[in-house]
Every structure is written in structure tokens, then in C-alpha cells.
Amino acid sequence: MSGEEDELINLKQFLEERIALIREDYFVRNKNVHESIKADLDLPEETFNKLQNMCNPKLFNPEESQREISSIEDFDSENLSFVEYLKNIYTRPNKRNQPVEIRFLKNLAKLNELEPENEDQIQAPDIILSVQLSQPLNSKLRKLAWSEDFLVLGQNYLCELKDKITCHRDEIRIGEFSEDPESVKSAPSMKDFIKSGYFFIENCLYNDMRNENNDISEVVRKWGEEKKIGTFESKTMENTKFIDLNIKIGFPYLYTHLGNCEHLLIFTSVKLVNPSSDCYLKSKYPILKDKTRGRFTFCWCCNKIYAKWIVCNSKYAVDDPTFLCERCLKNTHYLLAEKTDEENMEVNEEQEENEEKLKKAFDFKVYHYSQI
Ligand SMILES: [Zn+2]
Ligand SMILES: [Zn+2]
């Protein structure tokens, strides 16, 4: 369902109303595609068999009618541009170049091959919601850009979605690394440091209060009251399931983490679980359906490699701060360190294989810049 934008949907009620409309055997899982289609179409046996014969892929090309077709590669594509197109996308060596829909369908097919353990089966009847998240709102992008697309179950808790959302700001390593850029590998990341966050859906703030997190929505609620915008409810996301929500399809809601990193969140559709065609493994949800990579910042020196460092107070930089890649930072801001006599004595084969020790050529500051 992708209804009117202003229509508030009580998801529990939505599920109950749909259950009343469907056949009893709808939630019986049928892995046989033909049987599943047959059940969905609800046609007499004879009509279905006729239809099945008419749709036989062997009739796709009359000249090929005698040939057994087991895969897309078997089709003769001389005059069939659509087959050529399919062949092309199915056989691309780099999976990343395949259209998103094909990648998702292939993954879904693989997931559906797995036989769920009893406790890992979706407790049908249930619903599946499509949820879209934007890139951070306060980023340099002027236009709104989408980042991730998830499928969540009605039975999923809101915190399960939060745990699957990725944002490049979560991966920023905390600290100033000019003395030893290599130490960035062992430095804590932002998400290790700030674990709190909230969803803002229909005037309610759902806080992540696991791990002794703070209620970071408190300041928003106070601000709302002071500015007479309204009184917002507050709940915990680890105790709220999606099925408990009232939502509007296509309406912009909010996900906030790291204190002030804001992402728009939109529900794009809601439907009943179809046990024969949807992934039936409960543990796989929320499923990441699509991920759009944001715009990358290239190194301001070589303009070839992605920037990894933010450099401040550098006497060589035209702009302050400057974004540099690893190679340009080391080549322009560091000198080979002279080894002391003691260090020379300790040199062994293993150390010789390691990179040379570097020291700062002058005073500046360096911070990590994450782009995932
Ligand atoms: Zn973010
Ligand atoms: Zn560079």
C-alpha cells in the first residue's frame, strides 16, 4: 500500500483489516513458484494449466521451441534486444554494476533458498514496511539525497533498524593525529563514543536508552514547549515495535544520532508478508535493500584519491581546513625521522619491512575524515 500522503495509518489496524480480507491459506509458505502463483491467481486447474503452457519460455522464440532452456545464456539473442540486455546485466563481472533491482532480487532468491529454523520464521501474519533514509541533512549537499532503503517487519523493534543504519559520520575517529597518523586505526570511532539517538515519528520521540544512553531528545521537547510548537511524547525505541506505530506514507520523519546528525526517514510502502515470495528468515530483517553512496570529497592536492584527512593550520594549504589523501599528507607535511643510535642497534629484518618512521615537518593539526 502506498496511500494518500495525509492518511494516518494505524499499522495494527491495517494488519487486522487485511487479514479479514485474505484467504486462510495465504500465510502457508509455498516454495514452489508455480504452486504459489496458482494459489494467488485462484484459477481452475484447467485454466491455470492452459495459461502455464501459453507462458512457457520455450515459446519465447519459435525457432528455439525444441531446445531446453535452462539459463538466460541459452537464449539466442540475435533479434531480441531485451534478452541482450538481460544477458548483459546478468553476466557483468562486477556485481556492483548490476542494477539495484537485479542485485536485490538475486539476494532475495538466495535468502529464500535457506530453510528457516523454527524459531527464525516470521511469525505471520505480519507486515513489511519499506523505509528510506536520507544522507545527513546538514551536509554540504544542497539537494536532498537518499542513502539507504530498508525492509522492516512489523515485529522489528525500532532499535533494530537503528543498529543497521550506517552514516559516514559514525566512522569518524576521534582525536588529533598529526604526531602519528597511523594511530587512527586504534582510535575510538564516533559511534563507539556517542551511542544515543532518536526517531521522531508522529510527534513522538523514540529514544535509544540501551547502554545507559542519555535522553538526547529532552532538549528538543523543552525547546518545543518553550517555542509553543507543541508537546512531544517520549518513548524508548527498544520497547517499541513498528507494528505499534501510526504512520503516514511518504511523510518526512526524522532520525537523529551523534547529537545533531539528522536524516530524513520516510515510509514508502506497507504490505502484508507474502510467505512465498518475501524473505522468510526473521533474523535477516531489517534487510538493506539499497544503498546509495554519497558524493565523495577528493584530495585537494592530487584530486585523484578520496580525502582521508582534514588538515588545519598548514602553511602549505591555500584553504584552511584542507582535505588531503594519505599519500599527499605524508609527502607534503612529514620528513623521514633520523634514527637514534639505540634504534639503529635494534633494527632487525621485520622492522626493515615496516614503513619508515615519519616526523612532522612543521606545526599543523590533522583530523580523521570518514567517507564510507
Ligand atoms: Zn548521520
Ligand atoms: Zn592526494
Automatic annotation (TrEMBL):
It is found in: Nucleus. GO terms for molecular function: bent DNA binding; core promoter sequence-specific DNA binding; RNA polymerase II cis-regulatory region sequence-specific DNA binding; RNA polymerase III type 3 promoter sequence-specific DNA binding. It comes from the Eukaryota. GO terms for biological process: snRNA transcription by RNA polymerase II; snRNA transcription by RNA polymerase III. Pfam families: SNAPC3. GO terms for cellular component: nucleus; snRNA-activating protein complex. InterPro entries: snRNA-activating_su3 (IPR022042). Keywords: DNA-binding, Nucleus, Transcription, Transcription regulation. Part of the SNAPc complex required for the transcription of both RNA polymerase II and III small-nuclear RNA genes. Binds to the proximal sequence element (PSE), a non-TATA-box basal promoter element common to these 2 types of genes. Recruits TBP and BRF2 to the U6 snRNA TATA box. Belongs to the SNAPC3/SRD2 family. Part of the SNAPc complex composed of 5 subunits: SNAPC1, SNAPC2, SNAPC3, SNAPC4 and SNAPC5. SNAPC3 interacts with SNAPC1. PANTHER family: SNRNA-ACTIVATING PROTEIN COMPLEX SUBUNIT 3. This is snRNA-activating protein complex subunit 3. It comes from Brachionus calyciflorus.
